[in-house]
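Notes continue from the previous slide.

Worked example: a multi-chain complex. Inputs as given:
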Amino acid sequence: MAEPKAPLPATETMATTRVRPQVSIRGRSVGPIASSNAVGEEVPEFEPFMLLPRGPPPLTDYLDVWDVNMLKEPEEVNKQQHHTDRYANEGLIVRRGQEFQISITFNRPHDPSKDQFALEFVIGATPQYSKGTYIPVFPSEERNKLWGGRVLDTSDNVLTMGILPRADCIVGKYGMYVAVVTPYGIRRTKKDPSRELYILFNPWSFFPDDSVYLEDGAERTECVLNELGIIYHGAYDDVSERSWNYGQFEFGILDACLFIMDKGALPITNRGDPVKIARKASAMINSKDDEGVLVGNWSGDYMYGVAPTSWTGSVEILLSYANGGDPVCYAQCWVYAAVFNTFLRCLGIPARVVTNFFSAHDNDGNLKTDILLDENGKVDRSRTRDSIWNYHCWNECYMARLDLPEGFGGWQVVDATPQETSDGMYRCGPASVYAIKHGMVCYPFDAPFVFAEVNSDVVFYQRSRDGTLTPVKVNTSHVGRLVLTKAPGSNGRSDITSMYKFPEGSAEERTVLEKAEEYGVRRQDVTPPVADVALDIPSLEVKVGAGFDLALDFRNSSGQRRTVEAYTNGYVVYYTGVPSAEILFQSPTVTLDPRAGDAERKVIKVRPEDYMGKLVEQANLHFITTGKVKETGQIVTAMRVITLHKPRLLVQVAGTPRVSEEMLVTVQFTNDFKFSLENVHVRVEGPGVMSPHNKLYRLIAPGTTISWTESFIPRRQGPSKLMASLDCHALRQVTGEVDVHIEN
Amino acid sequence: MAEPKAPLPATETMATTRVRPQVSIRGRSVGPIASSNAVGEEVPEFEPFMLLPRGPPPLTDYLDVWDVNMLKEPEEVNKQQHHTDRYANEGLIVRRGQEFQISITFNRPHDPSKDQFALEFVIGATPQYSKGTYIPVFPSEERNKLWGGRVLDTSDNVLTMGILPRADCIVGKYGMYVAVVTPYGIRRTKKDPSRELYILFNPWSFFPDDSVYLEDGAERTECVLNELGIIYHGAYDDVSERSWNYGQFEFGILDACLFIMDKGALPITNRGDPVKIARKASAMINSKDDEGVLVGNWSGDYMYGVAPTSWTGSVEILLSYANGGDPVCYAQCWVYAAVFNTFLRCLGIPARVVTNFFSAHDNDGNLKTDILLDENGKVDRSRTRDSIWNYHCWNECYMARLDLPEGFGGWQVVDATPQETSDGMYRCGPASVYAIKHGMVCYPFDAPFVFAEVNSDVVFYQRSRDGTLTPVKVNTSHVGRLVLTKAPGSNGRSDITSMYKFPEGSAEERTVLEKAEEYGVRRQDVTPPVADVALDIPSLEVKVGAGFDLALDFRNSSGQRRTVEAYTNGYVVYYTGVPSAEILFQSPTVTLDPRAGDAERKVIKVRPEDYMGKLVEQANLHFITTGKVKETGQIVTAMRVITLHKPRLLVQVAGTPRVSEEMLVTVQFTNDFKFSLENVHVRVEGPGVMSPHNKLYRLIAPGTTISWTESFIPRRQGPSKLMASLDCHALRQVTGEVDVHIEN
C-alpha cells in the first residue's frame, strides 16, 4: 500500500508563498486568531497582585497542591458515566453538559473559610475568559459564572470536586491547572500533559441541553457508539452491502479529528457549534482546495495509492493523514462518507452513512438530467453528457439548527464528496432533511444541491436536424429511488426514503416541487403526451462471469397494432453512471398485436465474453433501450442497471475469544475465473480486536487458492467483526467478514 | 511600482501537484465541466445528414453567406440602445432581455419559402442546447425556443435580423455562426473572432425581467455607468473622501472580469445568475485560498508591492491580474471594495461601495466586542484582543433573490475583504440588506456576519483577582454608527444607515435584536446599572503635525459630590482599530460637585512631538478614557477617534479639453513638514481621459516642492476627473483631483 509521501519541504514553502511575500497580521488584528487546539503560551505559575520586593515570598502555611487525580481510567467513574470508556486514549475524556470529577490532594485539609482555590481550564492560544477559552471553576457555587463546580467529598487532605461544563462549551482538548490564591498573588500547578482532558459533544444531555441531544436511545447508541458500519451500494432492486470499520475509538483517532479541525484552521471559538464543525469537516474530508484528508479518484488508475474499493475502514486513512497532513489516496463517495462518519461519531455528533440510489450528482441544483436521442430515437452518446450515479453515499448528522427558524433541526445532510459543478463548492451541508422533504431549499447550507440529488427528472430529448431539441419523455421517478441506512441496533436495512420525499405522485409531492421552484430550482416544465406503448426491462441477479438473458417487455395498450423500432445499448459503466465501453448493440423491430395489456417479450442473450474483458471498478452493466413507434412517432424508453455479483472472501478465526489472548484469522480466496489476477491487495481489520493489516499477492493464477493467516490480540470485550477485502484491477470490492464475541 | 512577478513555472506545478498524482476525471463524469469562457472545439463547418458518396456536394444554387455585419461600432444602433457604447472594446457588447441587430449579406436575396438558415450562438466548451450554451436563432418566430429572432429588414441580398436573448441567459462572450440548411446537411460560416459578442446583465430590462432590473433611473445610471467613485473613510463625525477610478469601461477590463470567473472556475451554466456570480467574485477578488485578485496587507510594510493607500483606481490592478493571473499586492478594505465594484458594474450588475463607520469586523457573528479593564478601571491592553475598525468598506449589489422567499431582493451586501475568523470564509454575501435590517439572518449568505458588523455591542469587562470578568458597561450605539455611500448623480453623500438598522432605542430595534438572537447570534445579556456620572470626549478636527487640546467632559447627575479616578490613554491606531503605539497616558483624579448637569471639563494638551514620530498608515489617533467613581464603584468610559487631516495635492490641467487633443496635467506638492519624505509614489489617472501613470521621488526634503507634468489625450467626451495620490511610509493617502469636461 502506498500512501502519498510528504512532498519536498521546498514544495510546501513554494506552494504557500505563491501569494508572496508572506504578510504579517500586524495592523490587521491585535493577535493571531486562535485556530489551533495546540495549547499556546503557558499560564504563568505565579501571578503577583502587586510588585513584590524580591519575587514570590516563601510559602508559609498557604494551601499547596501535592497531587491531582483526573480519575481517567476506563473503569473509573468519569469515562463510565460519560460513555467514553471505549476510547483507546490515555487522557480523561468527558462530555459537556454533564458533571465529571477530579480529586486534589493538598498539603493539608482544605479550609473553605480561608483557603481560596480554583480549577482553571484553558484551550487554544491566548485563552480569554470572555471567549470561553479560559474557565476558572470554584468550589463554591455562587462564584461560578461559566461552568458549575462543587465539592463532592473531602477526606483528610483529599478533596473531590465536581465540574459541570456548559452544554455549549468548546469541544476539544483542554489544559487544566489548580490555582491557589495567596495574599501576594495566584500560585498555579505546573503545566502537566497528564492533566489535559478532552471535552466532547453530549447526545445524552437533554438538560442542560446540548444541541446534539438525540432522544431515541437506540439511534443514539448506533450513531455515536457503534464502530461497525454497513454501507449499501449496487442497485435499488439488488442492494449490495459492505462492512466498514469506523474505528472512532481506536488509538489516535480522536487526536486525528482535532488535527483535521486545526488543519482547516477552524477558530477555537467556533468549536462548540456542531453546525460549524460539520460544515468545516465537509470541506476538510476531501483534499480539494484545502489539502484535506482524501483525494478523490474515479479513473480506475490507483497506481500511486490505495484503490477506493480496497479500504476496509477509516482508521488507516485518518492515522496516515494525521501523521504529516498529506492527503491520502484514494477515495470515492462511500470512503468520504465513512471517514466523515468516523470524525462525527468520534467527537460525539450522532451520524450515519446513507446511500441514495440513482443520485443526480453534479447537476448544480438543476432538476433535470438530459439524455439525447437522434432523429430515430437512438441514444446520441456524443451529445449526452449528464450521468446519474447508480448510488451516492453521504452522511446525516443529528443536531438542532439554532441558526434557522423552528423545525429544521434533526437529521442534517452533510457530504464530503467534492461536487464538481456546484460553484466550486467542495463542501456541502449541513442541509436539513426536513427542509429538503418540504422543498424549503432557501435555508443554508446547500439544500438545493441535495434536493436535486433526490428529485431530478430524467428528460429524453430528441434532436432535430436544425439542432433544436424537443423533450419526448420525462421520467420523474427514476432519480432518488431509494435511500437506505443501517438500522439501529441490528444489521438490517432502514428505508428512509420517506424522510426525503413524499410518495411519488402524491399531492404533497407536487406542492413540494413547486415550492422548490419558487426558490429557483429549475426543472423541465413540459410534459410529453402519455404513451400507449410501454417498455420495461425486468431486473436480474447475475454472477460476474455468467451469461444471462436480458428481457425487453413491451406493453401495447393502444388497442391497435404497433411497430416499434427499438435500439438496445449495453455498456459497462462506472458507479457514477459514466459509460466505459459498449458491450452490446441491437436494433430489433418489434411488432405488437393489440393484446389485453400482457407483455410482448423480446429476449437478448448476453454472453460472458461480451463484457468480461471490459469490466471496470464495481462491475456495473447498464442497458438502455429506446425506440420509436412507427405508427405514432411516440418514443419509448427503458433503462436497467445490473450489478454483477462478486465471489465472497472466506474469513475464519481460531483461538479463544478473550481479551488479551492471541487469536488467528484466516482469509481465503479461490480464483474461479479463467484469467489470473495480478497485484491483488488483501486487507483485514476489526474494531477493538485487530488493527488494519494488508498483504499483496503479485499473482493469483486461475483455479488457485490463497490463504492468509494473521494473529491478533483483542483489546476489548464485547461483539466485534473481522472484515476483509480483496482488490485488484480486474476484480474490485470482493469482501468477507466474520463475527467474534470477545469475553473478558 | 512592483507588481509581484509570476513565480517560477515550477512553483505552479508543484503547488498544484501537492495532491499528487494528478487524477483524471475519467469515470467521474462524462466530460470536463465547462468552467471557462474560452470557446472550446469549433462547431463543424459541415454537418452531413447522412453518409455522402464523396464529401460535400458542389454548391449549386443554395444560399451562401458572403458577409456578416455585427453593427458593433459605438455610434451604431446596438451599443447605443444597450448602453454599452462607452466600453473601450472592439467586440459587439449587448445586454440580455433586449433585442440587438445583425445584418447578413447572402449571395442572393433570401427566399423564406425555400431558404432555411439560423444564427447560432455558442459559449464555452461542449456547447449544449439543453444547457443554454448552444442557441440556434431562426428568422421565423415559431421556430425559436430559447431566444427570439425575426427579420427586421431585407434589401436585395442584405437581411437584417433582430435577436432577443432571454433575460436570464448566460452572461459572457459568445461565438456566432450562420448555419444554412442544404439537402445534404448544415453548412456553417467559419469561426471568426470579429463575430464574437459579449452579452451582459441588463438593469434596464423590466420586461422581459432581468433579475438585476433596477427601477430607479438615477441609481441605475450611477451604479452601472459611472466610472467616477467617491469612497468615504475617516471618522463618522469627521468624514474624509477619496475619489476612485472604477474604470469599468477601460480597455481590457471586461475581458479581465471574464478571466476572473474563469480563474475561479465558475461553471458556464452558473453565469446567468447574479447571485452565483457575486458570491464567486467575493471569493475571487481576494487572493485567499484561490489565488484571487488582491493580496491583503495591513502591516505597513509594502516593500514588494503598492501600498493600499497609493492606488487611485481599479484599472491598473485588474489589468495586472488578467496578465498572468498572479495576485496583486496590496489591498485593504476599500481597495477590495473598489475593484469588486468595477467587476460588478462592468458585467452590468448595479453596485456601489458603502462605508460602515465603527465596524465590528472579524467577530464571527458574535454580537460583542470586549474591552478589558483591570481592578482600577484602567484598560488592560495585554488582555484586550478585539478591535473595532474605524470604518470598513464593502459593496452593495442590486438583484432579485430568486433563491429566497419574497421580499429579500434589492440591495445585497457582498464583501471581498477576507474575514479572518469566520470559519475560513474568505467570501461574504450576497446578504440581503432588508434581511439584516429585520434580523432575518437565517437566509444565505453570511447574514450573521454582516449583522454583527453593524449591530455589535461594546462590552467593558472588569477583571477581578481570580480571573473572572464582570461586565461593567455596555455601549450599544458605538458600532455601525453611520453607513454612507455616494449619492446618485452628484458628489454628495447619501446616509443609508436606516437601510441597515432601525433607530437606536426604538421598539423595532429591540425586536430585531431578539429575532437575530433566535437565529443564534449571541450577544451580551447583562445590562449594568445606569450611570449617574457620564463622560464624553468631544470630537476635534486636527491637521497632521498640529497640536491640540483633548477635552474630557464629565457630567454628574447624582446630586451628590463624586470623585472619578480617570485613566486616559492615547494611541496611534491602524484604521482597523489595532493600536500601534501609545502616545499618551494620564490619570487625573476629578472631583465633581453636584451641579445642575453642566459638564466639568478636563483638558489634556497633545503636542505634535507626542505623535508625529509614531504615525502609521492613515494617521488615526485613538483616545480612550476609563475610570471608577470612588463613591459608587461605577465605571465610566469614553472613546474618541481623531483622523489627522492631510495636506492636499494640487492638480491642474492645461490645454483645450477636446477628444483626441493632447492636454497636460500637473501634480504639485510641498513638503511642509520638518522631516523629509522618502520613496514617495505619486499616481495620476482619469477615466476616459488618462491611463494610470506613476512616478517615484526618492526624497522630498522639508520645505521643497515637487511638480510633475504629464501629457494625456482624452478618449471620450463628457465629464471626467483627473485623480492623483501621493504616498510614502511617513505620509499616506495624500490625494488631489481636478474636474475636466471633454468636448467633442
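Summary box: The two ends of chain A are 34 Å apart (CA to CA). Chain A is about 15% helix and 35% strand.
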